[in-house]
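Hey Z.,

So I finally got round to the LLP thing we talked about over coffee. Here's the setup:
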Amino acid sequence: MHEFRHKNNVLYCESVRVPDIAERVKTPFYLYSHHTLVDHYRKIKRAFKSVDALICFSMKANSSLAVCRALVNEGAGLDIVSGGELYKALRVGVDPKKIVYAGIGKTRREIEEAMKADILFFNVESLPELILLDSVAGSMRRIVNVSLRLNPDVAVKTHRYIVTGTSESKFGIGFEAARRIFERSDAFPNLRINGLHLHIGSQITHSRPYVRALRRVYAFIKKAPRNLQYLNIGGGLGIVYGNERPQTAHRFAKAVLPIIKKTKLKLILEPGRFVAGNSGILVTKVLYVKESLNKRFVIIDAGMNDMVRPSFYGAYHNIQPVVRKSHGRAPHMVVDVVGPVCESGDFLAKNRRLPMVIEGDILAVMGAGAYGYTMSSNYNSRPRAAEVMVIRDRFYTIREREIYRDLIKGEVIPRELR
Ligand code: LLP
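And the result:
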């Protein structure tokens, strides 16, 4: 559930009229409902209450400071994947002992920064990474917690770009290699290899692949000779974009908790989409309606640079008019909703049945709170959109729209070219 609802044909975010925000902020902008965000966090926290799981929100889904701060205020930790995310996490004010750091390509500098910050642990994805971590920890005279990311080799029904737990994937370490690492753990005197990490993919709507992966992990744990402390089962929980019927947090917990409890390890989850996905929308204006030979295009002021999921994954996002035309059953039309970017792949919807819209109408692209702003770019030298958060009956700009000056930040024309 989320708190973007039409009342008397006008879209509200909590108790604020979206057209009023659009009037003030101008389009396009991302709009978040604070209550929806926090509510989704609480849902997952509550579902795993019996084991007091640490929920580390995955910043890659949405790393805006206000969004992360709202979750940190609720007690969330953060799952990071780069030095940049570490920097932002610290700015948000999260307890570093609630930061977990994943990713297959951490640089020495990033590792040093995270060690200095004294984060909870590193999720390690390869032997060479382990060797580097040990040497950096040694030179900093620290003992550092490490979780090994296992690749459980389970197939998951989702977009092929977001499957991460099969043997074809670049992520994680196979069970056999992990077993050898545990056997040789003396070779890493500066590391405490005391956790296991899993992340099998994203937008997974059923608990079955998790259970399958966890069974394999449990079999591994039974034979693991070490004093393990942490089990991090990653993120990946799917949400409703269109007609998906994803598991609830409660059903998911019910399916996986029996195995998790048997491990007796401290549980960590890293949800991104589940927490943020339906708590945000992208608000955009219709610039033109263009008729071609056999198509009708609704051209909007948000493009693939603002929201790349449809172009990149063919992802479906529901699109709704912010003000519904009230006169009876409004006529519909089948259209491509496209952006201004010079690419045929720049679309937010293809062959979509929409109520008739005209120039100047405002549209809401739903389910845009995760992997929306974080995947945006300046392609076509388009300034990035603003971000706004509604808290009950007030709205706050949590990030200004970029201005043209931002487009040339750090650029220099060498004297020789002047
Ligand atoms: N933990 C790890 C190690 C991850 O790699 C990810 C996401 C997460 C947690 C959070 O996954 P979530 O709960 O959000 O599914 N850009 C794609 C999704 C890529 C996911 C990458 N990893 C999209 O827009 O669908």
